[in-house]
């Protein structure tokens, strides 16, 4: 499994960069995990949109799904010019309804697959993409309905926290992952803001340490924070040095 970082910012990107987006590849199957503002252009920079098999949006904030109308336009054009055969499958929540109602108008280009309607497999809801990826969703604790994501292929397991505050079961979901991609949004000086919404940088590091993951990639950074401060607080929780998510970074599992 290969992971390419396309975007790492929340709730808006720094100039020339993008919000949340990760390209996940195994064999001939390509999955886009999150398509926040600016991510479409990054897909085209590092790969090809026309090779994507599906898109996953953990929740309906724009820094995670804001490029869906652009993707819908691309699919419609691609179908017209025979660059793509079918609508693009998109896994996403149907809540909140006010956000979903807008996205539902894009169904002339997107095949919307509602996470809440997927079959239960224990504590997760699961689907298979292109016979290659098993994609599972678990509830997390954010300011709107949101999901963590587990992606498995070729005997490897990637766990993505999405946007969430720390809660007891999160460590169990992440335990032993080959790669944990965790939000690390809030510095300790603003920790009250994180309650009910996000992990602090220190909490992200502590989660990675306590869950015993093989690789740890902190991401989802607030663009007004100096990244050296964020890195310092992540490492305080993790107990050793970390490599921060950066556009174009490739991780092979």
Kindly describe this structure.
- The protein is α/β, with parallel strands linked by helices.
- It is 25% helix and 27% strand.
- It is built from eight helices and 14 strands.
- The strands form two sheets. Strands 6-5-4-3-2-1-14 form a seven-stranded mixed beta sheet.
- Helix 7 packs parallel to helix 8 (227-238).
Short synopsis of the structure:
The protein is built from 8 helices and 14 strands. By secondary structure, it is an alpha/beta fold. The longest helix has 13 residues, at 68-80.
Task: Summarize the helices and strands and which ones pair or pack.
Elements: E1 2-7, E2 21-26, E3 29-33, H1 39-46, E4 54-56, H2 62-65, H3 68-80, E5 88-92, H4 97-103, E6 110-114, E7 120-121, E8 124-129, E9 133-139, E10 147-153, E11 156-160, H5 169-174, E12 179-183, H6 191-194, H7 201-210, E13 216-219, H8 227-238, E14 250-252
Parallel strand pairs: 3-4, 4-5, 5-6, 11-12, 12-13
Antiparallel strand pairs: 1-2, 1-14, 2-3, 7-8, 8-9, 9-10, 10-11
Helix pairs in contact: 7-8
Amount of helix? 25-40%
Q: Quaternary status of these chains?
A: single chain
Question: Which word captures the global form?
Answer: globular
Report the uncertain regions: none
Beta-strand percentage range: 25-35%
Distance between the termini: 5 Å
Q: Biggest sheet, in brief?
A: 7 strands, mixed
Number of strands: 14
Q: How many helices in DSSP terms?
A: 8
Q: What radius of gyration results from the CA coordinates?
A: 17 Å
- The order of strands across the largest sheet is 6-5-4-3-2-1-14
Rounded average pLDDT: 97
Give the helix/strand class: alpha/beta
Please provide the ordered H/E string of secondary-structure elements. Answer: EEEHEHHEHEEEEEEHEHHEHE
């Amino acid at each position: 499994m290969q992971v390419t970082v396309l975007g790492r910012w929340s709730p808006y990107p720094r100039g020339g960069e993008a919000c949340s987006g990760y390209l996940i590849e195994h064999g001939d199957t390509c999955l886009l995990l999150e398509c926040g503002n600016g991510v479409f252009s990054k897909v085209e920079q590092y790969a090809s949109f026309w090779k994507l098999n599906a898109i996953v949006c953990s929740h309906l904030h724009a820094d995670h799904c804001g490029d869906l109308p652009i993707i819908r336009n691309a699919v419609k054009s691609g179908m017209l010019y025979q660059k793509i055969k079918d609508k693009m499958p998109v896994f996403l929540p149907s809540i909140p309804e006010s956000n979903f109602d807008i996205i539902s108008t894009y169904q002339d280009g997107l095949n919307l697959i509602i996470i809440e309607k997927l079959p239960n497999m224990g504590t997760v809801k699961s689907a298979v993409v292109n016979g290659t990826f098993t994609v599972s969703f678990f509830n997390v604790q954010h300011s709107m309905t949101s999901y963590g994501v587990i992606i498995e292929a070729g005997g490897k397991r990637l766990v993505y926290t999405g946007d969430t505050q720390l809660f007891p079961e999160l460590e169990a979901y992440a335990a032993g992952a080959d790669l944990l991609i965790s939000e690390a949004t809030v510095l300790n000086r603003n920790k009250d803001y994180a309650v009910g919404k996000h992990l602090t940088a220190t909490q992200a590091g502590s989660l990675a340490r306590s869950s015993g993951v093989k690789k740890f990639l902190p991401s989802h950074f607030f663009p007004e924070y100096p990244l050296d401060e964020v890195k310092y607080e992540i490492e305080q929780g993790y107990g050793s040095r970390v490599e921060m998510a950066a556009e174009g970074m490739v991780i092979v599992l």
